[in-house]
Amino acid sequence: MSTFKARGLIIKETKVNDTDKCLKIFFKDYGKMDVWARNCRSSKSKIFSGTNLFTYADFIIYKSSKSLSINQVEVISNFYNLSKDLDSLAYATYFLELVEKNILEGISLNDMLLLLLKNLNILSKDLQISKELIRVIFELKFLQIDGYRPIINCCYNCSKPLDDIKTTYFGTQGVLCQDCKKLSHQTIQIDKNILYVINHILSSDINNLFDFNVSNKFLTILIALNKLMLMNHFNTNINSKYFLEDISRKEFLI
């Protein structure tokens, strides 16, 4: 039995009996792990304020032969402003759930954690950027970090250079030429300018992702392309996604 210190973000919480929680924490250097927060639901508990969803903190973890338990918490941020705006909260919840359901346990993915934190931080601020664009950026970088970066400089099937493709399609792994279009069960015809936006997102550092904007027309297409890729590569049974789609429709009507 021992203890160790780790910095992480709570991405899921499950209440257990009247006093405890089982938390899913995305740790820097350690990846996603299940951790018990015992007696944390009492306001008198010393870890009460540090065991809620979206809490980013330094945790002292007690390790036994059977489980991990929180001993101490030093909160860095709880992204409190997310709770003030229902739309921001919905997008943030979707980001957490997408990560929680689609990355492996115990695998260090520090760039993914940084991506989550950056997007939560942007959502918690009152910035003049579409939340749907924030979602598009998150999903594309999520795909990239997890090893599913779309191929956009050539046809992913025959490797024909982009400059030689007259009619451009997008499939589950990126660009397709007209000859290879039939090989994908679902494709979307696109303007090549869409690929410049995708390339900007994929080639940008996580800290410099929110310095541009796009038209609603392009945004609608980017959402559709991301959906196509996510459905092919990941578990898309994301409960928060359905509420998010309602919000998305309202955003485009404004």
Which SSEs are present, and which pair or pack?
Elements: E1 2-16, E2 20-27, E3 31-37, E4 56-63, E5 68-77, H1 86-102, H2 110-123, H3 131-145, E6 169-171, E7 174-176, E8 188-189, H4 192-203, H5 216-233, H6 239-253
Antiparallel strand pairs: 1-2, 1-4, 2-3, 4-5, 6-7, 6-8
What does this structure look like?
The protein has six helices and eight strands, in the order βββββαααβββααα. By secondary structure, the chain is α+β, with helices and mostly antiparallel strands. It has two domains: 77 residues, Nucleic acid-binding proteins (OB fold (Dihydrolipoamide Acetyltransferase, E2P), Beta Barrel); 173 residues, de novo design (two linked rop proteins) (Up-down Bundle). Strands 3-2-1-4-5 form a five-stranded antiparallel beta sheet. Strands 7-6-8 form a three-stranded antiparallel beta sheet, with helices on one face. It is elongated. The termini are far apart.
